[in-house]
Batch of 2 targets.
Target 1
Amino acid sequence: ENIESCSDGDVVTYESSYDTDNYIVIDECGNELGELGAKAVEWINKNEDNIKLIRINNIEETDSGNYKADIEIFYR
């Protein structure tokens, strides 16, 4: 539900989940937006030192009333 208060292009961050071996996406206010998929986690683990910016994009409501979005990762 926190995703609906975001806008396309908003900068987000990530942090390790204490419950899983995953990363949680966090908005600029510290609200949890959801977990990253396994392939994204694997990619971040390999490239973490080169990540410059992460932003949210393509926010949309699903048929079930939940929200989903894409995360864009910019790196050098």
Target 2
Amino acid sequence: MDDINKLRSISIWIFIVPFIAINACLLLITQFHGLFPNQADIIHNTFPYFDGGASISRTARPYPTWLIFKPAMFITSYLLVRYWLYNKNIIEFFEQDHKYKNRIIYFGIASAVALTIHSIFLGIKFDNDFYKLFRRVVMLMFIIFEITA
């Protein structure tokens, strides 16, 4: 079945695209300090895989790193939608009237939409508690929808 091979390929890209993007952002924020207009955004002497000195959000939020991270998340969101649509085809191949097929696809695509919304607001700074709560809720929805799917 061709959909299984496509699903395998997309699964690999769903891993590779964010992995490369976040490591590029990490490299920029730790090594290329001259690129950052706000020197408070740079990070010195850390390797977060071992010491936990930086988070994904901390490395991807400031300008210019979000110029790498945002497009990568949009691409990942698109790949997630394709991933769940191929899953739907595979489920229908084995059982046409699967009881939970529509729920699986709904939550899978909803997680991709939540990731897109989160990516849109990444790097935008408002000193507003509602805005901070909104971003956290959207990220939580992404995680819950992905686990539910």
